[in-house]
Amino acid sequence: MPHGCRISSCRELVCGDEIQAQVGSVVHFRGRVTNLHPPMDLFWAVDAIGERRLIDFHEYAVYVVAETADALRAP
Predict the structure, then answer these.
(1) Please, what are the domains in the chain?
(2) Would you place residue 4 in the very low, low, confident or very high pLDDT band (cuts 50, 70, 90)?
(3) Neighbouring-strand partners of residue 70
(4) Global pTM value
């Protein structure tokens, strides 16, 4: 997946991906994915200062800005 690509499901993520959550063109959060909950399509991420946030795709437009190593991704 290209960096900066908008995603619509937590199934497109792995722990360690760096994401950016926006409303319109305003960035509300940027951090690394720590936990995934696919049944509810939610995930948690932690920013550079340690704030942990639950990200909901209904509330934010989510973009992957950096991925974990390809070796960690499922085939």
Answers:
(1) 5-69 (2.30.30.520)
(2) confident
(3) none
(4) 0.82
